[in-house]
Specification:
Elements lengths: L22 H15 L6 E5 L6 H14 L3 E6 L4 H23 L6 H17 L20 H18 L4 E6 L6 H16 L4 E7 L3 H8 L3 H4 E5 L5 H13 L4 E2 L1 H11 L3 H14 L4 E2 L1 H17 L1 H6 L4 H12 L5 E2 H7 L7 H10 L3 E2 L5 E4 L4 H11 L1
Parallel strand pairs: 1-4, 1-5, 2-3, 3-4, 6-7
Antiparallel strand pairs: 8-10, 9-10
Bound molecules: adenosine-5'-diphosphate and magnesium ion (MG).
Adenosine-5'-diphosphate (ADP) binds next to α2 and α11.
Pfam family, one: AAA_16
InterPro entries: AAA_16, P-loop_NTPase
Protein name: AAA ATPase domain-containing protein
């Protein structure tokens, strides 16, 4: 069928044609937005999970929910390096101005709003994040200490009356939150905590790798009371079926049951793979009916794409000893697995393991769901590694 009409959308943060299996998360955030409208506070939401399960797409959906309720929304994405950290702050500053401008739209320019904008100007000047060209009001005496935490808190405090007037909230939406620099992370958590105590609706809504909840807990012991942690995982059987079949049905294309089953088995409910195999099946189908032959062709094309993309991009980043670590992970009965299990495989010495584990986590190839164990960040990796080794 015409590839230019192909609805599937494999890629990072790309909207799927059907957002399947996420009703509970969308409803939880809806409730938070509804409570805000009644000036009631709730814990915020943190989404965590493997890469490719749909966290970014879900976070974006939540941001749209908040924006349509008139929230002042800012979105930033963590970056691991030091220049990355500076870029994130710059974006935070810029976005605050843009978001504040949007927030003001359609609302009366009251004294409360004017004061908030004055503090916003001093905040950006003090942190050197944005020049005056974006400023709407002259700086005032607030948010000028140059210390992120103090200034952010004053900024949020000064926005509180304006938020109250419109029963809305500030939402800072952070993707790849595990990569936010420590100082900014501490400031955001502290400010959300204090804001909560003062009844000010300031929410950090985050998405990140499975290590995120424990990172937040280590950063601030009260983090677990600030947030509701929601694991975003592969889709269950019914949702996976919807995600794969609905985009065809919506366009009057039928999928044969055996073809659908094959595509579902191969994608194991993993949203990114659903998009990959769905896209390939569409392209492999000559008419308005997806037969098993098209599905088989699609699986081949889809795997080829995965083998060109997400698997080698991880494997090639690993050093020789790190590869031994990954091979050991392919030999234990299942992951997550412990260091003791890896040592028992016999490829590496026990005392080599902690350093290798750390560097592989830094490279985003594995993660540690708790302090003891490790797992791959994408499913299907062991199969690729075994194939790779059998070809070598
Ligand atoms: N609920 C869903 N149903 C179907 N496809 C989805 C769903 N969520 C995400 N996807 C698809 O999965 C891929 C990865 O989504 P993304 O949000 O980037 O994942 P993550 O941020 O967890 O790495 C994208 O191609 C997206 O279209
Ligand atoms: Mg993402």
């Amino acid at each position: 069928m015409y590839p230019e009409l192909n609805p599937f959308n494999p890629g990072s943060g790309l909207e799927p044609p059907t957002l399947a299996g996420r009703d509970a998360e969308v409803a939880a955030f809806d409730l938070l937005v509804a409570r805000t409208r009644h000036q009631r506070l709730s814990p915020s939401i943190i989404l965590y999970g493997y890469r490719g399960v749909g966290k970014t797409v879900l976070l974006n959906a939540m941001r749209r929910q908040a924006a349509s309720a008139g929230w002042l929304c800012i979105d930033i994405e963590g970056q691991p390096s030091e220049p990355g950290a500076a870029a994130v702050r710059n974006r935070l500053g810029r976005h605050l101005h843009v978001a504040a401008d949007k927030f003001k739209n359609g609302k009366p320019y009251t004294a409360a709003v004017r004061r908030a904008f004055g503090t916003l100007t001093s905040f950006s000047l003090s942190l050197g994040v944005v020049g005056l060209e974006l400023a709407r009001e002259q700086p005032n005496a607030r948010a000028q200490s140059g210390r992120l935490e103090v200034d952010l808190e004053e900024l949020v405090e000064d926005f509180a009356p304006a938020l109250k007037e419109s029963s809305s909230a500030i939402g800072v939406f952070i993707d790849e939150m595990q990569d936010i620099d420590q100082e900014l992370l501490e400031a955001l958590l502290t400010v959300q905590n204090r804001a909560g105590q003062e009844g000010i609706p300031f929410y950090v809504v985050g998405a990140g790798l499975p290590s995120l909840p424990s990172l937040l807990g280590r950063t601030r012991s009260y983090a677990e009371r600030l947030f509701e942690y929601r694991q975003v995982d592969a889709l269950d059987a019914e949702a996976a079926r919807t995600a794969l079949e609905r985009p065809f049905l919506d366009r009057n294309v039928m999928v044969a049951p055996d073809a659908l089953n094959l595509l579902l088995t191969e994608s194991s409910g993993y949203p990114y793979y659903i998009q990959i195999f769905g896209q390939a099946a569409w392209n492999a189908t000559p008419d308005k009916f997806v037969h098993i032959e098209s599905a088989q062709k699609a699986v081949e094309v889809g795997y080829h794409r995965l083998e060109q993309g997400i698997f080698p991009s991880r494997w090639d980043r690993a050093q020789p000893e790190e590869k031994e670590f990954l091979r050991s992970m392919c030999e234990v009965p299942e992951t997550p697995c412990s260091m003791a299990q890896l040592a028992a495989v016999g490829k590496l010495e026990q005392d080599q393991l902690p350093a290798l584990k750390r560097s592989l986590i830094e490279k985003g190839i594995i993660y540690s769901p708790d302090l003891e164990t490790v797992a791959f960040t994408v499913p299907g990796m062991p199969r690729f590694i075994r194939r790779q080794d059998s070809l070598a």
